[in-house]
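Student: I would love a firmer grasp of how sequence relates to backbone shape in proteins. Thank you; the sequence and its tokens follow:
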Amino acid sequence: MAWRGAGCRSDFTVEDAWLVARAKYKAIVGMTSTATSMLPSITEIVARYPKNRGSLIAILQDIQAAYGFLSEQAIDDLEKLIGISSSEIYGVATFYTQFRFQPPGKFTIQVCQGTACHVRGAARILQELQQVLGVNPGETTEDGQFTLEQVACLGCCALAPVVAVNGKVYASMTPTKVNAVIEEYRKQ
């Protein structure tokens, strides 16, 4: 599934973003990776836009699409390149839930919280996922495998309640089905 939410301009999938984030991490800790050399630099991303406040969200979206998240280094680089303070950049980025500051897990689990899913037990499914994974919404498991997210609506109301893993929708979910779904991805 292409990663194209809220104005993102990338063909990267969530799995691609995870692989890129892992490659960046390995490069930071001293391992080499050819994947990092294929990434656009922050300077290259910024060069696509006018250097003003109006471009900030689009630039942040492109950085996150390329690297999987907004790192402290990326925000520091952005401050130098466009002349907006890092505290202002953080202020904008933290206002919008689309931005993350930690690398996403290999598998992003989205639990729909729309009305149809809510009345059919989405809260119990979310609680079960939290217990099984040991994380809260917005967090990633220590092994980097899973990121858990609550979303307003996945647009699958007739199939409610639903959970999506990297875009693959699981319909008529129940707390008892959670373990089977998680095990399917742990094997990968």
